[in-house]
Amino acid sequence: MLFTYILYTKNLLLSIKNHFDFFGFWCKIELIPLTLTLKEVIKISRSSFVTIKDIAEKAGVSVNTVSRALNDKPDINPQTKEKIEKIAQELGYVKNVYATMLKSNVTHTIGVIMSDSSNPFFSEVFKGIDKAARENNYQIIIMNSEGLYENEEKFLKTLLERRVDGILLFPMQKSYEDIQELIKEHFPIVLVGREIDGWNVDEIFSDEEKGGYLATKYLIEKGCKKIKMITDQLYNSASYGRLQGYKKALKEKGLAFSENDIKICEGIHEGYHVKAGYDKTMEMIRKKEEFDGIFCYNDLIAYGAIKALKENNLKISQNVSVVGYDDIAFSRLIEPELTTVKVKKFEMGYEAFQMLYKRIKSKQRDNSSTRKVLDVELVVRNS
Amino acid sequence: MLFTYILYTKNLLLSIKNHFDFFGFWCKIELIPLTLTLKEVIKISRSSFVTIKDIAEKAGVSVNTVSRALNDKPDINPQTKEKIEKIAQELGYVKNVYATMLKSNVTHTIGVIMSDSSNPFFSEVFKGIDKAARENNYQIIIMNSEGLYENEEKFLKTLLERRVDGILLFPMQKSYEDIQELIKEHFPIVLVGREIDGWNVDEIFSDEEKGGYLATKYLIEKGCKKIKMITDQLYNSASYGRLQGYKKALKEKGLAFSENDIKICEGIHEGYHVKAGYDKTMEMIRKKEEFDGIFCYNDLIAYGAIKALKENNLKISQNVSVVGYDDIAFSRLIEPELTTVKVKKFEMGYEAFQMLYKRIKSKQRDNSSTRKVLDVELVVRNS
DNA sequence: CTGTTAGCGCATTCAT
DNA sequence: ATGAATGCGCTAACAG
């Protein structure tokens, strides 16, 4: 074990390092020059970061001269500035942004709460956020709620403690109270990927109904007579919208809607989408339900469905057609290549940050709000 | 447009909100009680966060009583505590961690720099980091370097400015100077996924040579006589190690090694791995190079290779066998299911954080370092 | 052009 | 059990 003691006597500063072991100990005594005060020594022993005060002392100027020099403020002698910059360089000075933040009340940080950043859909959206944030010199604290409301709540608090300038939230449809609280306070927040009716808050999301409509219409026009839909929990606007589109297309084409054709995934865990798609399809086959088309809530579910169909020797696109949603990168790699609804993932993230940024910048904390709807399109491939 | 002015007169504080529009403007005058000072009003207009001072005033106690109450310190009257907690609740108090950090010099934040968090390999590793960090109540600031050294350098600085307690870095093999600087200063840092010889720094990485060896040996034992390797840039330890393993297996089985069998991907951009795997394979076919096996640096490259082989009507596993690396989730979904080297991705992230945490906690900033090697295994599937 | 001073929000002695 | 005072590192207002 290693201990460090610091003693202050009238004219001597001792730093004693004792190395103990089972058989005794020895100690090493270091003399520290008297120019350092006790406080400074403590500081040194605690943290190795150099402060503007250190620079100021070394340069023989005041701290604020250093501050001005390092922040490119006017009213400074070029030579002084140069000298200070040189010393800062030598000492390896790195600004402590916390001190700055404490004064300025601005952190240049946003919080991002999503359910699972390793899900390809989210990670594409995140890329957009990341890009936009970097361009504006903003940092990101990311939190994965794993779809759990408790986490969402906890993270929200953590982010506020960190005084993020704003928050991008991919909400579970359940979380109402705390978010509404924030909105009431006009805290900068943008809801991403979900539409929440009647709230006075900035939102960006896809035209889900159109997506569901396009997918279903495509299946019908391809000749499908009985189209199943495998969807996610129905209490979020995305699945709701896609379902509406599905219904709309059925109605338009004169096909009957049946509750039994809607299969809802349950459980949230690592890779559950693929598994759910697989399980639901297997179940439909086992129960000998008739169907010649499946509209899946997302591509991952579609992968699972395709896997199940293959295992039962059903020909994709001939016996059963499958349409996914999102158009993640892998949908071009699986066999057959997946027909899917393309969502502007990167744009969603990029735009979301822009909206948040605008909100942060405008001191205007009023009751107006903007909502942006992103267009979707059908990508026809071989499924 | 909406402007807010604050006027301070001898006995009157005016907050004037002027609503301009094209046709004129009107203004609303609010009287603010004299108990507030100008400074306080400015504060209110600037930030809506309540401080312990606000609570103290409302509770009629001192700030430190509030501080003690809220931090579960001893020496406090239970009733006072309860009262303070209630007021804090009412006012919607959220602690400003920056102030705390400024005092404590501890941020409970780590920085993570990786090349692309949307790459499935990295996102799995990140999950492990995230899990471990949450368990220890640490926050994460993540940065995507996009494989660019300039970014890595810049981000490192940003993270230091943010006074992260430690850094997890997935290094490009190029970046030496600045990292070494940090290591010399005994700043807590753990290098993840890459082994760097001769550095005195904590590292965690996979047994790359074993992975390359297992993959190649498998191909040979399956009957392959001419095995190509499509790899990434060779200046990182991962590709180097896998190449060594490849060579070792060839030698052991009496097959000749040829420089021409090593195909190196170039370019770094969105989805370049898949494309590179595809391009390199197409090129080999076009040039009529002979081969009956491909060992790919990662699964993404393997997907591209498989796509190219299929397009040329080559039967995977019969005409040409393919082995990938990493075993990302999608390798079970493509057709044929990919034989690959399974890497402990989640564990790598999880352990990496543990190592960093240990380093952060032990004030001991000495010259010792630990390196952890994770085992790999071959997962035989149908390619 | 530069130094002095005050204060951001909080936690920590040290008194009382 | 509670309050007063101090300082973390930095910036900004003000004075010289």
From TrEMBL, chains A, B:
InterPro entries to which the protein is assigned, alphabetical: HTH_LacI, Lambda_DNA-bd_dom_sf, Peripla_BP/Lac1_sug-bd_dom, Peripla_BP_I
Positions of transmembrane segments: none
Gene Ontology terms for molecular function: DNA-binding transcription factor activity; transcription cis-regulatory region binding
Domain HTH lacI-type: 50-104
Alphabetical keyword list: DNA-binding, Transcription, Transcription regulation
UniProt keyword Transcription regulation present: yes
Pfam family, any one: LacI
PANTHER family per record: LACI-RELATED TRANSCRIPTIONAL REPRESSOR, TRANSCRIPTION REGULATOR, MEMBER OF GALR FAMILY
Name this protein carries in UniProt: LacI family transcription regulator
